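A reminder from the course coordinator: this example appears on the midterm review sheet, so study it carefully.

Given structure:
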């Protein structure tokens, strides 16, 4: 088991706040590039004090897993099939992910919700299946631009959390991270201001407190995602309710990922 495996490393209110910084490589990289970038990240983060994760494409998992072995970086998958096995053409099952060395899975990314029309109900089934098999989960939530403009950002996140986590026990919650990713900020270069992001994170924490109690909600890691880069990361990560980042574009190069990943207060 690699270190930094569980959210319990996060010490809110203690002396050191550990952030959870994750790179979602999306549908990028070939085998050689993935191996090289993972090797560079492993070296660059070897003394890092935060929690780290890299999520490459399915076809690159084994390559990256071999590189990350013995490191402080978790191996993540970007999605997961709905069932353990069977007639699900084009899907990859939780058992296959485990065999490839995956420790955590990103579920409900806005590209899954909006391009591939994955619903809250589907997300909930996947969350429960991943947890049943001991995987950690990053559950992504976030509003579209029109939902924000209509003043519905908080309500959208509340709905996605309530439905996504339906029937998830407080015991299993320690393996869940929430990523707040306003859809209008993903890959667009526009990030939410630290104040706006912190306000939504705070409302997400209230939703979690209503579901699981204050203590559990306080201990939850809530990442921000959406055009996070070295220039804006510190402003976001200094906010009290922002506990890490889920990073797309800036996660594809060490020059942009490492300065964020090594952030400390
Ligand atoms: C993401 O896809 O989760 C993301 C936040 O992408 P980007 O950092 O490129 O906006």
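Designed residues:
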């Amino acid at each position: 088991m690699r270190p930094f495996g569980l959210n319990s490393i996060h010490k809110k209110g203690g002396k050191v706040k550990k952030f959870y910084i994750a790179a979602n490589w999306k549908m990028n990289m070939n085998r050689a590039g993935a191996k090289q970038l993972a090797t560079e990240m492993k070296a660059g983060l070897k003394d890092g004090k935060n929690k780290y994760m890299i999520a490459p494409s399915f076809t690159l998992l084994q390559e990256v897993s071999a590189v990350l072995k013995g490191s402080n970086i978790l191996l993540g998958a970007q999605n997961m099939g709905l069932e353990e096995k069977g007639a699900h053409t084009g899907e990859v099952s939780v058992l296959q992910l485990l065999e490839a060395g995956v420790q955590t899975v990103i579920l409900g990314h806005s590209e899954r919700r909006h391009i591939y029309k994955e619903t809250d109900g589907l997300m909930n089934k996947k969350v429960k299946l991943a947890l049943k098999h001991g995987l950690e989960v990053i559950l992504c939530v976030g509003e579209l631009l029109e939902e924000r403009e209509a003043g519905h950002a908080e309500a959208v996140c509340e709905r996605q959390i309530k439905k996504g986590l339906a029937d998830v026990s407080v015991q299993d919650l320690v393996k869940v991270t929430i990523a707040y990713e306003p859809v209008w900020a993903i890959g667009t270069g526009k990030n939410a201001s630290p104040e706006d992001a912190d306000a939504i994170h705070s409302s997400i924490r209230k939703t979690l407190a209503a579901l699981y109690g204050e203590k559990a909600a306080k201990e939850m890691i809530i990442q921000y995602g959406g055009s996070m880069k070295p220039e804006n990361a510190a402003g976001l990560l200094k906010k009290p309710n922002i506990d890490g980042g889920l990073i797309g574009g800036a996660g594809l190069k060490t020059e942009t990922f490492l300065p964020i990943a090594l952030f400390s207060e």
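The chain is about 40% helix and 15% strand. The mean pLDDT is 94.
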